[in-house]
Amino acid sequence: MQSRSRRIVLANTVSLIIMLIANFFAGTGSFVNKTVGEVSNKYDTLFTPSGYAFIIWSFIFLLAISFCIYEWYLLKNGDRKNYILQTGYWFAVSNLANTLWLFCWLNEWVGLSVVVILLLLICLCILTVRLRLELDDEPVQTILFVWWPITIYLGWIMVATIACIAAWLVSTGYKGGTIGEEAWTVVMIAIATFLFLLLVRNRNLREASVVGIWAFIAIATKQWQLHNNISVAALIASFVLLIAITIHGYKNRESNVFAKISRGEWR
After folding, report:
1. What are phi and psi of 201, to 5 degrees?
2. How far is the C-alpha of 107 from the C-alpha of 100, rounded, in Å?
3. For residue 267, is it within any domain?
4. Using CA of residue 102, residue 108, residue 114, residue 115, what is the dihedral sign?
């Protein structure tokens, strides 16, 4: 059992390092003399958030690093809840999927990039279920180093998946069909909002919806003087999610991380 846990943690760590290195070089254009942002601009869509929104990747990377460090801590000090075994190799697969997505995107294999990002999304969904994220009453350590790294990552990849599908449609020449590109973007915002609301209602994943708000505001900012209907729809979606998060958070205020810290429920 211990040896299997060690192999899992090692695989998670090595794959994370590979993913971080790949993202660094992809950001500098060292792979194929183009960056992720340059390709995104080529296949720009009305659903794509403003550039500042992608700062969230730095936060996601830090959380992923903390997730791996915590697994090493659990390996050394005893993994009573079997988080390592429950994680399995799914975190490692998600890291490799992230790396593969960069390769596909930078080579402008947009259709294949959709398949890969769906794989990444599936991995995060599986981790959400296997680790029982946000379902149990757990201490602060678990919330910070197990729940949040996956939950926040999941929230962003949900948005990124829709954006990637939209980019693929643009690459095929699709402009929204009979309803038009603007109306199609509003539909995508509505679908994303519905999915985030489901996560709050059925899985208590408020943090994922906070990421949704971040993305929607960035979409509204980008389209403010260009497509007012999209900006309004994105702001309404943000408001709806904020209300849902606030109500859910108030009902569960005794179990939030700040209440637990005040009670000293660290471990």
Report:
1. -70, -45
2. 11
3. no
4. negative
Q: At residue 116, does pLDDT exceed 90?
A: yes
Burial (CB count <10 Å: 0-12, 13-18, 19+), residue 137: exposed
The conformation of residue 10, written as its DSSP 8-state character, comes to H
What's the rounded Cα separation, in Å, for the pair 160 and 40? 11
Per DSSP, the three-state class of 256 is coil
Distance separating alpha carbons of residues 53 and 65, to the nearest angstrom: 20
Tokens of 204: 């208590």
- Angstrom distance (rounded) from CA 102 to CA 108: 10
Domain containing residue 20: 2-262
Q: Indicate the DSSP class of residue 144.
A: I
| pLDDT exceeds 80 at position 260 | no
What does the pLDDT look like over 90-111, one tens digit per residue? 999 999 999 999 999 999 999 9
pLDDT digit string (tens) for 18-54?
999 999 998 887 777 888 888 988 898 999 999 899 9
